[in-house]
Structure formats: C-alpha cells, structure tokens
Design brief:
The chain has 266 residues and is α/β, with parallel strands linked by helices. The longest helix is centred in the last third of the chain and has 26 residues. It has a single domain, classed as 2-enoyl-CoA Hydratase, Chain A, domain 1 (Alpha-Beta Complex), CATH 3.90.226. Helices cover 44% and strands 15% of the residues. The chain has 11 helices and 9 strands. Helix 5 packs parallel to helix 6 and helix 6 packs antiparallel against helix 7.
Length: 266
C-alpha cells in the first residue's frame, strides 16, 4: 500500500566489532510493514554472518524506535487474505520469531526511545539486553486491537516481570522506561540524548569477553525464551483472533482515527 520496495528501510553498519542495525522509516515512526520486516531479517542475518561483528545494537531513526505493525498494510487485509496467510503478516514477514530465525547465538542489545509499541515491544523483549532512553513510552497494543498478547505475556514472565506483565497484558496500558526498569523488564535507562552512548558502553563490556563464552549463554537463553513464548502462543493460536469482528473493528477504528464502536466478543 504505497510502499517503495527498493528503499532501504533498515541500515547496517559495523565499527570496532559492534554492529548497528537501525530501523529507517522515521516518517511512519518506523512502523513495521512486510518489507521492513524482511529487510530487518536480512540485516540480522548479515550480522550473524559478519566475522567482524561480536555484538549488535538494534535502534530506530527519528522520533521513535517502532510504533508497531503497519496497521494499514498488515491488519486491514481482506478476510480471505488473512485466512490464506494465517494472520496479518505477509509471506516471509512474520516478526514473531524474527530474531531467533536470523541470529544463532550472537548477542543483540535493543536501544529504544520515543515510543515502543506492539510489534516493536515484542521485538525489543526478544533482544538479550535492553537500554531505553528516559521517558520512553511502551505499549502492548495487541490486547486493545483484539489480537491477544500471549507471546508478550510470556516475554514479561521470562524476564521476571510477571505481576507487572499480567497487568500490562490485561489492560494494554502505556508504561514508561522507568516503570519497566523498576519491574525488572529492561536493563538500563539512559539519560536523554545518551541512548546510543549507553548502549555502546554495554556492548563494549559484552564484547570484551571471549566470544564463545558469550554465545554459549545467548544460545541457552534464546532456546528457553523461544520455547516459553511459542508454548504461550500455541495456547492462543486456535482462537484465530485475526479473523474476529472485534479485530476488524479495532483496525478500522485506528485507520479512521476514531474510538471503536463497541466490541462484541466475536
């Protein structure tokens, strides 16, 4: 829907053994379209194969890290297309286990700012370490959009933020970087304008260790998180929430910039 497929939506660079992977769709607050997801997967695979890169920092250009999935493209598909694809994602653009598909055992640090919503939150929580700029606002949008938040719920519990995660998953409310740090959901809160500096300091500390030692930890951590998150998603999958009237109404309300007209539980 108006997406230029030859544009570079994700930037990759490597300096002093630390790779930087940056979402680069700032005019849409880095909303993740199918093409953004595909390019991000390619960048993560490039990092995985890059012999010069030991650690990656995942960040976003512009005013926000990621405002979530591109609703206009991914959530307003026809019912027939949603059934054929098995969800809102396009072919080769499933972000649910994006990092696990692309990176074997190298550590990825999320450096987030502005807004971190929906798909952006899930991607952040899949990363191994998380640094957020002071004042960053997070939201699990899947609950209010009718998609369910089983995977997010599992990510919160895996990180030791169970009670906080229960509340956020059931209410879908915004929460701040400071709340996330207090709940043990993220690792650090960086001062304003110091996000990348703080993330790089953390990356340097990780990269100073023997690479195979670090990768043994990452490999183990990812295996357990992936298993836990997939088991949670498996419980939700039979409901096929992406085909419900409530999901369609929530997506339409977002497009039309209005409040939903009432959910029907079907």
């Amino acid at each position: 829907m108006g997406e230029t497929t030859d544009r570079q939506y994700v930037e990759y660079g490597c300096h002093d053994r630390i790779a930087t992977i940056a979402l680069n769709r700032p005019e849409k607050l880095n909303a993740a379209s199918d093409e953004v997801v595909r390019q991000l997967m390619a960048a993560l695979r490039r990092f995985d194969a890059d012999p010069d890169a030991l650690v990656a920092i995942l960040c976003g250009r512009g005013r926000a890290f990621c405002s979530g999935a591109d609703v206009h493209q991914r959530q307003l598909r026809s019912r027939e297309e949603l059934e054929r694809l098995g969800g809102p994602q396009g072919h080769g653009a499933n972000a649910a286990d994006l990092l696990f598909q692309s990176v074997n055992s190298k550590p990825v640090i999320a450096a987030v700012h502005g807004h971190v919503l929906g798909l952006g939150l899930a991607l952040t929580l899949d990363c191994d370490l998380i640094v957020a700029e002071a004042g960053t606002r997070f939201q699990l949008t899947e609950t209010s959009r009718g998609l369910g938040a089983a995977r997010h719920w599992a990510q919160f519990h895996f990180r030791g933020a169970g009670a906080f995660g229960d509340e956020v998953a059931l209410t879908g409310r915004f929460f701040t970087a400071e709340e996330a740090l207090a709940a043990n959901l993220i690792n650090r809160v960086a001062p304003k304008e110091k996000l990348m500096e703080s993330a790089r300091e953390l990356a340097v500390s990780v990269a100073a260790n023997p690479p195979l030692s670090v990768r043994a930890i990452i490999r183990t951590r990812r295996w357990y998180l992936d298993r836990y998150a997939k088991e949670a998603a498996f419980q939700q999958a039979p409901m096929r929430l992406y085909l419900t009237e409530d999901f369609h109404e929530a997506a339409l309300a977002f497009k039309e910039k209005r409040k939903p007209r009432g959910f029907k539980g079907r």
